[in-house]
Design a protein that fits this description.
The protein is 69% helix and 0% strand. By secondary structure, the protein is mainly α. The longest helix is centred in the middle third of the chain and has 25 residues.
Length: 204
């Protein structure tokens, strides 16, 4: 089959954004299924039916694509959790909404979730957008803890507590994604863990 490059020689901003998005969608799936090391730029080009050199017009190399895919995932994840927190009233309701949004995002977007948390990006300092997106995502796991501290529902360091809750929900999600929990098991397990952690951190 002949491979063609459908993109014009002179690219508009819309052309560039559209192709980058399509390439990232294909890369996200292949990276998650096979692992980044097993995917080549030629394979990514073939997924879109373009010439092998076309992806290099939009990205420096495969690591650049991986960084863009992961940054996009972190930003969509953070947006979902931020929206959940903003839509609830009261610290307890906000915490519950964030937890529900976390599980929902992870199970609805397993490829994104796997790339976000299962892979280390080499030379991450080269990708400021990825670093910013990662910080934004981490902030979502301390924001609702700060709400609970402000309302006197718990005590302690918000970053450390946020990490504990994050570890609990991440572990539950990974077990379900791996088939070690039945459908719905991650949400059920997290609810139990959440209640237990909350009781242990209530002020005396």
């Amino acid at each position: 089959m002949q491979v063609s490059d459908p993109m014009p020689r002179v690219l508009s901003e819309t052309d560039v954004a559209d192709f980058r998005e399509r390439l990232c969608e294909a890369a996200e799936r292949l990276f998650a299924e096979r692992g980044p090391d097993a995917v080549t730029m030629r394979q990514l080009a073939a997924e879109l039916g373009v010439s092998p050199m076309t992806p290099y017009r939009y990205f420096e190399d495969k690591d650049d694509i991986l960084a863009a895919v992961r940054a996009n995932g972190f930003n969509r994840f953070a947006e979902a959790l931020e929206r959940a927190r903003e839509g609830a009233v009261g610290a307890k309701a906000r915490g519950s909404a964030v937890g529900e949004a976390y599980v929902t995002f992870a199970l609805d977007h397993p490829h994104s979730y796997k790339l976000m948390f299962d892979f280390n990006q080499p030379h991450v300092e080269k990708y400021p957008e990825l670093m910013a997106a990662g910080r934004r995502a981490q902030k979502t796991m301390t924001g609702y803890i700060e709400d609970a501290l402000a309302e006197g529902l718990m005590r302690g360091d918000p970053e450390q507590i946020g990490l504990m809750f994050w570890a609990a929900i991440h572990g539950a999600v990974i077990l379900e994604l791996a088939g070690m929990l039945p459908p719905g098991g991650a949400r059920q397990l997290y609810h139990g863990l959440d209640a237990t952690l909350m009781r242990g951190m209530r002020p005396e």
